[in-house]
Amino acid sequence: WQCFRALCCKGPPPPRPEYDLVCIGLAGSGKTSLLSQLCSESPENIVSTTGFSIKAVPFQNAILNVKELGGTDNIRKYWSRYYQGSQGVIFVLDSASSEDDLETARNELHSALQHPQLCTLPFLILANHQDKPAARSVQEV
To answer: What residues does Mg(2+) bind to (predicted)?
Structure first.
């Protein structure tokens, strides 16, 4: 009876905590591919984000609600409008990009690090495209 009671009377599992993150980076840095990979989605037919998208990324102990913001010039100026309520930041950069693009990424990262709504939050900086021949090391980035 104890065994049966333990199996049937447990109730639903406790809810996993949810965290709201913002994912930013220049266009083509791999934000959409990263989130698709984390959600176990097919890497085929990935289209660059032209505004923003939200994905719930499930982990065993938590759910990350990631707001991915497009990275083109005309969208980056609106990033700060989507920062409110964020509890962490994922900054994705293309480690194989041109010097000019890397400099633009540095400027955007520094701007985000200094933003009042983000400056106290944890940041994950992901140097993507490490598989490309032109990829820079972490030290170079």
So the answer is: 32, 49
Whether 103 is in a domain gets the answer yes
- The CA-CA-CA angle for residues 66, 114, 104, to 5°, reads 80
- 29 known ligand binder: yes
What residues make up the domain containing 119? 18-128
Which CATH number fits the domain that encloses residue 58? 3.40.50.300
Whose tokens are 């000019």? That residue is 100
Q: Supply the Cα-derived Rg of the chain in whole angstroms.
A: 18
130 is in an annotated binding site: yes
Q: Residue 110, annotated ligand binder?
A: no
pLDDT tens digits in sequence order for the chain, 141 residues long: 454 555 555 667 778 999 999 999 999 999 999 999 988 888 777 888 878 999 999 999 999 999 999 999 999 999 999 999 999 999 999 999 999 999 999 999 999 999 999 999 999 999 999 999 888 887 888
Q: How many CB atoms lie within 10 A of CB 22?
A: 26
Answer whether residue 140 is part of any domain: no
Residue 27 domain flag: yes
pTM of the model: 0.87
Whether residue 72 is annotated as binding a ligand: the answer is no
